[in-house]
Specification:
By secondary structure, the protein is of the alpha/beta class. The protein has one domain: Aldolase class I (TIM Barrel), CATH 3.20.20.70. It has eleven helices and eight strands. The longest helix has 16 residues. It is globular. It starts with a strand and ends with a helix. The structure holds 2-phosphoglycolic acid (PGA). 2-phosphoglycolic acid binds next to strand 8. Belongs to the triosephosphate isomerase family.
């Protein structure tokens, strides 16, 4: 049985004051015991969140990390070892906003994935197709390639200590959600791709869905056999809404 996970990606949102508010809201939530809950604040707020959530079983992760695992001369970057020391346990790798807006490519993401694992962080590998790619019938090819680039370089075994988030780019922040069946179809293909290499790893890895998940659509999405929870953007900035999504994963 895979333990569900719900993770909140706060993106480039937050001030000290709004983060304090959110921490307070999260602190008051009754969270289901069978679900791993995590939040990904901006680098600036990681400390504030770790301190503020002390004693609450919510993991804290970073939205990005350097290609090198250890501290050193790499201006503007944050090393996975530094994140681990601060108390982070997870890191997003390859979110579509970083692939598309910052221009991160597979080569870079392979290094980030490996650097994170070298420091004991759990990478959450984000993969997904654009609307254009979906309409051209290329969804499985695109997602398969994004996943395949990691498997090819690092081996399928790395997914024993990683999470995968399928996030169709057209569903992120748009209010458009993949239907539960559309998401399930891609999740099943991802698991099959892993299973072709190692069935134990494929059965154990958590596959999260992301893209306009809300309390209102979470139950149906999380009810699909290969959807093990969600990566939540906009709705994770509201503690009550986020709590409701976490409870949906516990059902
Ligand atoms: P969204 O973002 O929930 O606001 O669509 C999801 C994500 O980008 O992780």
């Amino acid at each position: 049985m895979r333990r569900p996970m719900v993770a909140g990606n706060w993106k480039m949102h937050g001030t000290r004051a709004s983060v304090a508010e959110l921490i307070k809201g999260l602190g008051n939530l009754a969270l289901p015991s069978g679900v791993d809950v995590a939040v990904f604040p901006s680098f600036l707020h990681i400390n504030q969140v770790i301190d503020g959530l002390e004693g609450k079983s919510i993991k804290v992760g970073a939205q990005n990390a350097a290609v090198e695992s250890k501290q050193g001369a790499l201006t503007g970057e944050v090393a996975p070892s530094q994140l681990a020391e601060e108390g982070c346990s997870l890191v997003l790798v390859g979110h579509s906003e970083r692939r598309q807006i910052i221009g991160e490519n597979d080569e870079t993401l392979i290094r980030k994935f490996a650097a994170a694992q070298a420091c004991g962080l759990i990478p959450v590998l984000c993969i997904g197709e654009t609307l254009e790619q979906r309409e051209a019938g290329k969804t499985l090819e695109v997602v398969g390639h994004q996943l395949g680039s990691i498997i090819e370089k690092l081996g399928v075994g790395v997914f024993a200590k990683a999470v995968i988030a399928y996030e169709p780019v057209w569903a992120i922040g748009t209010g458009l959600t993949a239907s539960p069946q559309q998401a399930q179809d891609v999740h099943a293909a991802i698991r099959a791709q892993l299973a072709a290499e190692n069935s134990e790893v494929a059965q154990g890895v958590r596959l999260l869905y992301g893209g306009s998940v809300k309390a209102a659509n979470a139950v149906e999405l999380f009810g699909m056999p290969d959807i093990d929870g969600g990566l939540i953007g906009g709705a994770s900035l509201n503690a009550d809404e986020f709590g409701a999504i976490c409870r949906a994963a516990g059902n």
